[in-house]
Amino acid sequence: LAFATRLKSVATMAASQEFTGNLKREVEKLFDTSLRITVPDGTSVETEVAASLPGKPGDYQCNNAMGLWSVIKGKGTQFRGPPAVGQAISKNLPASEMVETCSVAGPGFVNLVLSSKWMAKSIEKMLIDGIDTWAPTLPVKRAVVDFSSPNIAKEMHVGHLRSTIIGDTLARMLEYSKVEVLRRNHVGDWGTQFGMLIEYLFEKFPDTESVTETAIGDLQTFYKKSKTKFDEDTDFKEKAQKAVVRLQGGDPIYRKAWAKICEISRTEFAKVYQRLKVELEEKGESFYNPYIANVIGELDSKGLVEESEGARVIFLEGFNIPLMVVKSDGGFNYASTDLTALWYRLNEEKAEWIVYVTDVGQQQHFNMFFKAARKAGWLPESDKTYPRVDHVGFGLVLGDDGKRFRTRSSDVVRLVDLLDEAKTRSKTALIERGKDKEWTPEELDRTAEAVGYGAVKYADLKNNRLTNYTFNFDQMLSDKGNTAVYLLYAHARICSIIRKSGKDIDELKKTEKLALDHPEERALGLHLLRFAETVEEACSNLLPNVLCHYLYDLSERYTSFYSVHQVIGSPEEASRLLLCEATAVVMRKCFHLLGITPVYKI
Ligand code: ARG
């Protein structure tokens, strides 16, 4: 009887199963149910479902039979080996309109073939209700993404560009997944460098009030000059050191000069953010200053802080150096600020997931203060449990010579120039294709910008972030291969097919049916349905390249479909136009998540 009741509740469950967007999860739910019926009470199993590799018999496979067999064999089971367990898993699969067939292969792989009808219906539904209905749901409500974070008056370099691009994408993916994201620019605005900068400013511009950006010129050069003076002139050095104390003590004249320097830097940074269309809220190191003493005091009262060579440090297992939290001169440092910012984000901002995007070179710093925070009981022991912190590290940007990326003219790369060059080059390419004669100057400019900036972003995002990547304009702006240009053009071509058909696509969505009868149509449809699970994976593992890979695959599948099937004028025209539209919708969402502006005409 117990068994019968269980079956009944299972059946009800299957009937009420709504597609939430995450295809893999839906398949998992079916196998979960089947496994609960198949295995004896009390056996705990974790459902193992994976997308099948191309060319394999199913769309998804359940790989539990072998593992389950090794658990239950010899314990009076009715099964005779893994294939029999697989058969039972297959047989116990609840009835669902999602499933076409389910069969067992080899030593017990259970292969599930999805119903093409159901697939088509789900895509139709997405076209009507919008792709946001496919958005993943993550187990957090609020997250902090700490990214970009250049240092005031110092160089904003390609590393900061990578951080800006990767951080923005992660923020976008989390936002799409209904997480409230606090996009934080943790600028370095509180170092000892301000002493010398301020004194130098006083010397060069006694009338500090009226100093403008143009008067100072390049803040980086200003920094270098003040540094030279600091190193060579002992009187100046002394003055600068006193200036730090006066600034940190809150002297209004020094605070004003500091604010001025920050403002000039901010205007510089804003130019990069504007071009990239990246939004960020600045909460720099200085913001946390009023809280530091208390936070370090709390760690001290927990017995974590010890004396070492005049400094105050936290010893951590697994690290051969301690984490310094108070310098020997009594001042605070990068780590004390980061600990305080973490405290603030957890307690004041109530963030459940805090993600830091910097080069891998800073990994040790992050691992150390994360560990200190665990020791203080601010974070759970397990690093996958929420509230959770993650350091998203990335590799270097290299030039063609395989060394750190530099321009010929100077030893630093001005990011604004770099982005402008990408745009200029893409404009030249468009003019070579005669687009200046076809389009208005605004259209040309807009497209050049979308393609140029998109190319820079995509070149950065498509590789696993931990690997170094080579910055090469020719490569990233090529219209062949895995580039933004290729993908943007592919999208534009789909849009142009829809336009050329002369059909009102919104009307078609309401009146026509989508069919996935041919293998290429079905393969494309299946890939579309895997969008949400891909975003979820990219989000959970903080890997934008997963989404890039998906997008590239999508355009490849579209090409396979389009190269063998006629769209306009074929008997299947309406259905195929809907499939084109669904592809374009998913591509646009990918572009959006990658921070790339789509192009509709090419
Ligand atoms: N300003 C630092 C740098 O340029 C990056 C800051 C990253 N964020 C943080 N919370 N530590 O290297």
From TrEMBL:
The record's top EC class is ligase
Q: Does the keyword Nucleotide-binding apply?
A: yes
Reactions catalysed, as given in the entry: tRNA(Arg) + L-arginine + ATP = L-arginyl-tRNA(Arg) + AMP + diphosphate
List, alphabetically, the InterPro entries matched.
aa-tRNA-synth_I_CS (IPR001412), Arg-tRNA-ligase (IPR001278), Arg-tRNA-synth_N (IPR005148), Arg-tRNA-synth_N_sf (IPR036695), ArgRS_core (IPR035684), DALR_anticod-bd (IPR008909), Rossmann-like_a/b/a_fold (IPR014729), tRNAsynth_Ia_anticodon-bd (IPR009080)
Checking SUPFAM superfamilies in the record gives: Anticodon-binding domain of a subclass of class I aminoacyl-tRNA synthetases (SSF47323), Arginyl-tRNA synthetase (ArgRS), N-terminal 'additional' domain (SSF55190), Nucleotidylyl transferase (SSF52374)
Q: What is its EC number?
A: 6.1.1.19
Q: Which residues form the Arginyl tRNA synthetase N-terminal domain?
A: 25-114
Q: Write down the CDD domains for this protein, in alphabetical order.
A: Anticodon_Ia_Arg, ArgRS_core
Q: Which UniProt keywords apply?
A: Aminoacyl-tRNA synthetase, ATP-binding, Ligase, Nucleotide-binding, Protein biosynthesis
Please state every residue range assigned to the domain named DALR anticodon binding.
487-602
Q: Does the keyword ATP-binding apply?
A: yes
Q: Which Gene3D superfamilies match?
A: Arginyl tRNA synthetase N-terminal domain (3.30.1360.70), HUPs (3.40.50.620), Isoleucyl-tRNA Synthetase, Domain 1 (1.10.730.10)
- Family stated for the protein in its record: Belongs to the class-I aminoacyl-tRNA synthetase family.
Q: What is this protein called?
A: arginine--tRNA ligase
The gene for this chain is A01p018990.1_BraROA
